[in-house]
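Request: When convenient, would you put together a sequence paired with its structure tokens?
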Amino acid sequence: MKQHLGRQSGVQKVDVNLIDGKVEVTPKEGGQIDPAQLLKATYDSGVTAAEMDVTARGKIVKDSSGGLALQVAPNQSFVLTPNELSKGLETLADTQTMVTVGGQLFKKPAGKKKADPSAPLKLLVLEVQKKE
């Protein structure tokens, strides 16, 4: 799995902790990682992902349906799953304020259902770390 993830574009380092069952992926300086590709690479390596947590920095924007998204690069954004924390970011929509959030992009469905790694990833904001 470490090799599958390490070959992905924008990845600098992959740390695997088998005891905790966690993998930490560090992006290259100024690099951009596609979480959907990381999830696919994880499944391609024969490992099932239970969840994917991220720390991301970007601007709050409104997407085409009027919902909120975190734009982390000119061509990459994550649609926000509505919750109290994401609602608190509405006033920052379409401003130049940069926000750093911690959240969850993927959680395996409960039970024996197989996850669909091709489903669009939505960011559930679990903490707002910084506004600047």
The chain has a mean pLDDT of 86. The beta strands are 11-17, 22-27, 51-62, 68-73, 76-80, 98-107, 122-131. Residues 1-49 form one domain.
